[in-house]
């Protein structure tokens, strides 16, 4: 696969079943990365011309990660070998073959909902394990719904999660692609508010062949 022509889209679907218009958009891409798929074991989700690699959240139906990879692209599931039972993080990964060599694509999701017994200190420990692994890989694309705020990627102010992400990123190893554009719009008390919570990081060796942008969600 020629990396310079590879098109990847990432989206928090908040339930992928029944969203026909999204499928029409997906066919223009080579790899689709979906978080919060809400898929259960009995659910069937397919897209013609694509292989579906599912990482359903067994302990909670309101989660799950899905990769859709065009059938002509060679890929493998990637075992990150992080020997830890995550409480607050969902993580899934594949490796694809390209003209630049193998590239690891890692999808990440953290729920903004605080569950009983789940502390930010627990998340900080989990995040450190994840980012250390990501930054140890040779060529990586690390993307997803981080549910974290920081001015570095366009937020008005930082939250503890955003601060922790910044503190553990080695800017000599991976680059942030976000340009400050909002990636999420919510309706709160009758008022629409935008935020930037979906992030994409990438190895520097891949940057020259990359363009990043936010699409309208309509």
Automatic annotation (TrEMBL):
InterPro entries: Endo/exonu/phosph_ase_sf (IPR036691), Endo/exonuclease/phosphatase (IPR005135). Residues 103-213 form the Endonuclease/exonuclease/phosphatase domain. SUPFAM superfamilies: DNase I-like (SSF56219). This is Endonuclease/exonuclease/phosphatase domain-containing protein. It holds the Pfam family Exo_endo_phos_2. Signal peptide: none annotated.
